[in-house]
Amino acid sequence: VASGEDLSYQWYYQKPGESGWTMVSKNGTSATYSLTTAARHNGYTYRCVVSNGDGEATSSVATLTVKSAPTITTQPSSVTVAAGKAATFKVVASGEDLSYQWYYQKPGVSGWNIVTVNGTSATYTLTAQARHNGYTYRCIVSNSDGEATSSVAALTVKSAPTITTQPSSVTVAAGKTATFKVVASGEDLSYQWYYQKPGESGWTMVSKNGTSATYSLTTAARHNGYTYRCVVSNGDGEATSSVATLTVKSAPTITTQPSSVTVAAGKAATFKVVASGEDLSYQWYYQKPGESGWTMVSKNGTSATYSLTTAARHNGYTYRCVVSNSDGEATSSVATLTVK
Hints:
Elements: E1 8-14, E2 22-23, E3 45-52, E4 55-58, E5 62-63, E6 71-74, E7 79-82, E8 86-90, E9 92-94, E10 99-105, E11 113-114, E12 123-127, E13 136-143, E14 146-149, E15 153-158, E16 162-165, E17 170-173, E18 177-181, E19 183-185, E20 190-196, E21 204-205, E22 214-218, E23 227-234, E24 237-240, E25 244-249, E26 253-256, E27 261-263, E28 268-272, E29 274-276, E30 281-287, E31 295-296, E32 305-309, E33 318-325, E34 328-331, E35 335-339
Parallel strand pairs: 7-15, 17-25, 27-35
Antiparallel strand pairs: 1-2, 1-3, 3-4, 3-5, 6-9, 8-12, 10-11, 10-13, 13-14, 13-15, 16-19, 18-22, 20-21, 20-23, 23-24, 23-25, 26-29, 28-32, 30-31, 30-33, 33-34, 33-35
């Protein structure tokens, strides 16, 4: 407001940090100057030069403060951490009297939940657990003039493997394939199978075909009683499976053959066979001199030892035993009975 005659008005503005004044070119020639503010106008200063033909007067300086809703200048970034480690999300915003509130969303859920613990600052930190894998986070920054919602940041929690299905023990016949399998959850998994021989305390790494979730081998009788386990690992740790046992069922093996026997007539003659294997059955057979076929011993001929009371007619008889189980059979060598 100015006094004088034939007054003219001209408004000027100065940007923050500048030393010169710029003439307002639009609507700046009256006693009142109005503008529609934007955030960029914050800190502008204004003054008016009032003049007539006899001189001019310059007003004092007035400052324009523009209060605006927050603006997020740095969005939160997604985070990948190992289970049990700290995960930190951060937002940077411009504006006055800012308030922060973080929210989380579970995988597969459409709604957002408020973070009730330590969720009201520009930085939010939590101790990541395996269950947090796939959670997403965002922050709402607000003041009395409005609010701004950040972009969404994801939390990836890497954890040591967890074995969900243990390997099972296997029983097979010798020469057949035995397969052990482990199922584990986790990322970037590596597998290594190990075996332990019966009576040993240490574990030996399977060097051939032992680096996948499934391990198969062609069995031999020597593998009977071997135990197997798998170590599943990634960059965050490892898990060792339970132990599975391999039982190899095999046909009998005769380790001691029956020997020929010489006895006097009327005395007992005994033939014996020794065999290895499971669930063994025995059957003795005899062959008379000059015959080509074998006759089953019908009396007392079903054990590892066969005894008979000799007579002169038995002279020259030969004997052998067939040892069997569900996986096969073995026939002993021939033993001769000499009756004196």
